[in-house]
Structures are given as C-alpha cells and as structure tokens.
Amino acid sequence: MSLHNTNDWESAALQLAAKLEAEGQDLYEFQQAVNSPGFTAMVRKAIAQACSNAARPTLPQAKREKLATLVGYSARYSIKPWSRVRRFVENGEAYVVLSLEQMVLLSETSFAGEHKPLGECAINGTPEERAELSAAGESLAREAIRLYTAHQEAIATALGDTRTLDDFKEELGVSISNLLAREGVEYFASLTDWTENELLDLRNFGEGSLNRTKVVMRATGYQLKEG
C-alpha cells in the first residue's frame, strides 16, 4: 500500500478505524473530532513533528548542560531567573522548537567561553552558521521561558489555586512581592516548587523575607519544597 495512491486511502482509513476500535476508542467521538474545525491542521502538525523528531540528532547530556549555560545569555533581558529556567534546555524539552538544520549544527559544533550569545561561542563554522546558532539560542531561550511559565501554571492548576503573586502583595509586602516577581514567580501556589535555600540564594532575600513568606504560605495551607 502506498499513500501516494489515492485508491489506498480507503484501506488506510479502515485500518485506522479498526485500530481505534481495538484500543477501545469511541469511534463516534472520533468522528466528531474529525469533523471539528482545525482537526486536519492539528494532524498535519503532529505528523510533521513526528517526522522531524525521527530524523533529529540527539545531544549528549554534557553538551545540553553546556548549551544551557550559553543559551542563558540569550535570555539576559528576561525577568525569568535562568537558574530555574535552564532545566528545560538541560532535559531536552526546549529543543522541539529548533529546525533539523539547527539541531545538526548544534550536534556538529564545539563551543568554548561564556558570557556571550551562543553563536559567538562557537569555535568552528562559517559566519552564516554562527548567525544560525545565535538564532537557535534565542529560540531555545524563548521556549525554555515559555515552558517555565507553563510549569508554574500546571502547579497552580493542579492545586486548584490560580491566584497570582499580586493577590498576596499586601500579606507579603511590596519588597518581597517585587523580589519574587523579578525572579519570574507568577502564581503564588508555584512557590511550593521552591526550597528555602533557593529563596535565600536570591539577591536581597534574607531570613526575614523567608520567614514572612513561609508564614503567608502556611496561612494558605502551603509549604516550601524540602531540599
């Protein structure tokens, strides 16, 4: 069977229906989904992503950790703390936004130095490739920040509490609220993902700020993460 041949499409559709039925899926619900606006576009996107992932090179952990440090300089103007955001570069989640060409470049390029955008740290490659690497670094930074924000939202949603940091400004005080906002905290409940040491590592966040934060969290039934 070849899907280049339209005569085989019916056979492919029947195979799909049989597979869904065997897996216990409700075919009527699936039919409704197929008829929904945007379904075709979603399927096209999913297949394109699957094809892309199948051919994408993978980066070793040591290289992802090195790149996480370098990519941080592409996010230097963001209010998000790269120390917490970089996890999404280190674990590979953020790389989904990169093209196959960019992934190949990253896998074939050696990097040295720091305190510079990704492309400027490449020790081999043409000027065009360096520019592409810089673009890849910016894309990785944006995606990692997006994932970090989504991670916070997921914590808040799981706890059934989507109140923002601003909702607790009076209890926390302006100074603490501003410090946490500068570090990218958007949802109050997402503080349950922080440890005491992580908060104390923040600039101008001392024991007094920590104790007040813990008091406010306890009043709402929350506590900091152990560690």
Tell me the total number of β-strands.
0
Order of helices and strands: HHHHHHHHHHHH
- As residue ranges, the low-confidence spans are none
**Total number of domains:** 3
Blueprint of the fold:
Blueprint lengths: L8 H14 L4 H8 L4 H17 L5 H11 L10 H4 L1 H4 L9 H9 L18 H32 L10 H4 L1 H9 L13 H5 L6 H13 L8
Q: Can you walk me through this structure?
A:
- By secondary structure, the protein is mainly alpha-helical.
- It folds into 3 domains: 6-55, no CATH class; 61-158, no CATH class; 165-219.
- Helix content is 57%, strand content 0%.
- The chain has 12 helices and no strands.
- The protein has helices spanning 9-22, 27-34, 39-55, 61-71, 82-85, 87-90, 100-108, 127-158, 169-172, 174-182, 196-200, 207-219.
- The protein is flat and about 75 Å long.
- The termini are far apart.
- The model has no long low-confidence stretch (mean pLDDT 85).
Question: What distinguishing features does this structure have?
Answer:
single chain; 227 residues; mainly alpha; 3 domains
Question: What's the short story on this structure?
Answer:
The protein is an all-alpha fold and 227 residues long. 57% of the residues lie in helices and 0% in strands.
